[in-house]
Write a structure and sequence with these properties.
single chain; 96 residues; mainly alpha; 3 helices; 74% helix; flagellum
Length: 96
């Protein structure tokens, strides 16, 4: 019995799944948050490039990291848009 209890203690105890996002927030709120975070990443990357170009500070490494974060964020958002457009087109093709 000791061995079973020892094994059980290594696994996390099951808990109820928690809701993702803000309470009461719907799809529109999550979409707005995604748009805002993508925009913020783009603005931060632009500012980092301007600071590096003007010599005000920041290393090339930090600038490249901010550019890559902005790029990944934009790619994700474009893929979300593509999926939403595909879903809309599929719905429009349905016969009622």
């Amino acid at each position: 019995m000791k061995n079973i209890n020892a094994i059980n203690s290594t696994f996390p105890s099951p808990t109820a799944p928690q809701k993702a996002g803000k309470p009461g927030g719907g799809f529109a709120d999550q979409l707005k948050d995604a748009i805002n975070s993508t925009n913020e990443a783009q603005v931060k990357a632009d500012q980092a490039v301007e600071q590096l170009h003007s010599g005000q500070g920041g290393s090339l490494h930090e600038v490249m990291l901010s550019l890559e974060k902005a790029d990944i964020s934009m790619r994700l958002f474009v893929q979300l848009r593509n999926k939403a457009v595909d879903a809309y087109q599929e719905i429009m093709r349905m016969n009622v």
